[in-house]
Amino acid sequence: MRTRAVLTDEDIESMAAAAIAHARANAWPVTIAIVDEGGHALFLRRLDGAGAASAEMALAKARTAAMGRRESKVYEEVIRQGRTAFLSAPFTGMLEGGVPVIVNGDVIGAVGVSGVKSDQDAAVARAGIAALGIEPGAA
Fold first, then answer.
1. Contact 30, 90 (CB under 8 A)
2. Nearest to 128, CA basis, from 20, 27, 46, 49
3. pLDDT per residue rounded down to tens, the chain (139 residues)
4. Which candidate among 26, 77, 113, 124 keeps its CA 20 to 30 Å from the CA of 51?
């Protein structure tokens, strides 16, 4: 029988704290979402000054990264390169800022961030994942 890692309450708290600290250190008003491998919300925090829409977008980016098994920016790049058929994919957060949590090749969740420039959103997500001592990145 094969076993795989899962996100624990402690993992979620560690990732959230690290992501919040990174956002605050840069004075970035963002919303941070953490989801499990199926895209189900485990954590959502809208920091002071983050726009209301950023809550929906952060969740969408996290869900896209978890269920798509890769960073959400991959989809953004595919569409930008002209493959507009990807707009019919069942994901709504196809912008940079969603990063999967990968352990031993398995995507066990994702962090999605929205509120500032896309690369800054992704930096906050990566800072959260790095708190687990794993390298964030695409599968």
1. no
2. 20
3. 878 899 999 999 999 999 999 999 999 999 999 999 999 999 999 999 999 999 999 999 999 999 999 999 999 898 889 998 878 888 888 899 999 999 999 999 999 999 999 999 999 999 999 999 987 754 4
4. 77
Q: What is the DSSP string of 36-100?
A: ETT--EEEEEE-TT--THHHHHHHHHHHHHHHHTS-HHHHHHHHHTT-GGGGGSS-S--SS-EEE
| Sign of the torsion formed by the C-alpha atoms of 96, 132, 107 and 66 | negative
By residue count, the chain amounts to 139
